[in-house]
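[Structure tokenization] protein backbone as discrete codes

[Encoding] learned vocabulary of local backbone shapes

[Begin record] amino acids and matching fold tokens:

___
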Amino acid sequence: MIFDRSLSRRSFAIGSAAAAGAGMAAIALTSCSSNENHTQTGEPQVVTDSSLIINVLDGDYEYTDATLTPSATWTLPLGTLLFHTGNAAWSAAMLTPESAAHINTLGALSLSSGNLVTVKEDATQGSPYTYFDVRCSDSVYAWIEINYTDRSWALFGQQFADGSLVGDPVKLDEGDENWEPPRITVCGDSVIWQRMPLSTGSSAGEDSHCYIWSVGADEGIEVWTSHGRFATTPRVSGNVLTITPRVREDEGTYYGLTALDLTSKDYDQVDQLVMPSPVAPLDAEYLGDRFAFSVEASYDGAGSLGSMGSFLGVSGGPYLYVRREPLSQISGNGSTYLIKTQSSHLIVDTDAQTYGVLYSPDRATEYGDFPATEGQSSQFLTFGTVRGTTGIPESVTARVFQL
């Protein structure tokens, strides 16, 4: 079973590790890079000036009936979950085969042909481990295996090419019941993950860490240390990584949306936006030249950025605001942004100052389809469970849109 953290704030967790098993390649984790070299703290963005808020749905943008037409549509087996990073030609897939031998398996979907292939059936850790989460680029494949009996987990990375794994898996991290299974993403041939203690476990007071590992490397390098849990999953758009560590910790609970340059030696800070205390964003990424982030609840006394909804902007504003409950990450390309609402997507064009609607497939279940794509991409992949003629969920419809 896999849980999409952008849909739920569940606190299923796990943590610190024993040595890698016999015959299993493993890496060391090192603090070669540190956030001590980064500018961490801007001023908290307590926005009380209404002129800094551009309200898309309340008159500041014009509605248009223009929508998007899929360039490809495929019917996939019921239970398939998709995860697509940037402009990758492949999307990672979690599959639920009708087999007593496997609760789930790992796969990949070609966005050019629609071919869905099984990449890995048996867990590397063996029984009773099963698959918990998965991501891939066109060069690397990453997955988490979990033992639901004792809540131990392990994170693996492996080279990936043309829909197949290459070489041997490498154990990147592992943990027990006191540490949350890592939140992961990929970029090029690299795997990025956050190691965080469970907020209620015996390790709750320990720091959280963000690491990166590249195919062929002997070490995973620390990108950032947070004195407290990260608020959101790591997201990559282009060559920019967005994380949300705790900042200004001596003053209270503040989260800083932090964009880092993955092409620089020390992961230089590109931009940062400090949320008002104690607002914890649901999701955040740096799309183009601005942060795209969401807040899943309303906070008293936190100003406009403490309101439930989705936002686009940088420190100082102005901020584009969509007053709808956020359900997933924001994706887009250029001036076009796709924002998931309860049963459809809003298509927001910041150049034209318009918004339209991308409707879910016919017979989609209650929440319609979800974005698989993370970050800026010319291809936008969605997937949704659809009902058959009897009203029972029957399959998954995947659609590709060109942006």
Q: What stands out?
A: Residues 241 and 260 are 5 Å apart (CA to CA).
